[in-house]
Amino acid sequence: xxxxxxxxxxxxxxxxxxxxxxxxxxxxxxxxxxxxxxxxxxxxxxxxxxxxxxxxxxxxxxxxxxxxxxxxxxxxxxxxxxxxxxxxxxxxxxxxxxxxxxxxxxxxxxxxxxxxxxxxxxxxxxxxxxxxxxxxxxxxxxxxxxxxxxxxxxxxxxxxxxxxxxxxxxxxxxxxxxxxxxxxxxxxxxxxxxxxxxxxxxxxxxxxxxxxxxxxxxxxxxxxxxxxxxxxxxxxxxxxxxxxxxxxxxxxxxxxxxxxxxxxxxxxxxxxxxxxxxxxxxxxxxxxxxxxxxxxxxxxxxxxxxxxxxxxxxxxxxxxxxxxxxxxxxxxxxxxxxxxxxxxxxxxxxxxxxxxxxxxxxxxxxxxxxxxxxxxxxxxxxxxxxxxxxxxxxxxxxxxxxxxxxxxxxxxxxxxxxxxxxxxxxxxxxxxxxxxxxxxxxxxxxxxxxxxxxxx
Length: 456
What we know:
alpha+beta, Glucose Permease (Domain IIA), 2 domains, 57% helix
């Protein structure tokens, strides 16, 4: 039996519990420090400022794309060639600014997430300490028998009030422990968000480096053009005539090789039209920017030329050999990430520019998919995968550019029947004598070239 002194000392236990719980509730509900709250508002304002700049810069990029489209349809002159290079550089330079603003906004977002995590960790620690103190006090209270509580109370009513209060405190503690567990889960979620944001930041920084390399390549291309032509229109036209003749010879030899390939395409081995099995080969951010160019291009996907017989292919039979365009072209500033349209394996990569006088795909990547399709990505400024490498939908396979035969920066996106596609040189066709005869590239019978729009 406890002494009267023990009983009297335990009389204050419930009051101690109540005080402790009051501190616990106040700690959990405590608002962020005013200085932090003000900083959070300022950070959001800075993020909004970056996003506003991005929107304005996207409009500039759309205007440059319109200029490139107009230049691409004009007669090729030295002036238009230099203008195309200059506009492409301006477009890429603007894209660099967009990426820099995205990096700035993402960096601010990451800082804010880290601040929120630190605040939440402090509150969790405060809650944990308060809960621990309250539990210790409650355990002490539970050691007091009902008889002892009655003797310790001033009145019988006070005794029963203390008993009810103890039960209420137990419920409150249980709720607070649950809230603490929820806070820990929320903290884990924010830490995952922070990790994702860090990955996004690293990807943007890599993209920025590639875009800056594209600017350097653009500058070098202009210098090379001026050196070749000595800034003389007549010299340039001679170069263009030679380039067109070599391109025409290449297209003729390629067409002959395609006709000589004796492969029966089994249409039952490929997805049906309209199945939507392929994703667009660009990011959601780039897709958003395309919406602002819809008024210029007439579509929401930055497509500058469709599959098949198009006005451009009809106007340039020397390029397409009268057989139309075997892919779609997507206008992209140099250095834009080009993404795998579906999971698969990199079947091959190459660079036709490595063969002097060959005007074709430039830098290209071919990915084979498990559903019977291959996808081609060409005119790249940089390749970021290797043959045999596995890729997932949305992985970067390279960065856009204007290597090969291109009048402006864009992605040539093709879809082939896997069963009928080979990577080979034109030497497989015994009559091949053009410079491209020694260049490796994907080749297939003409009926194995599929319209990408049928599967996107």
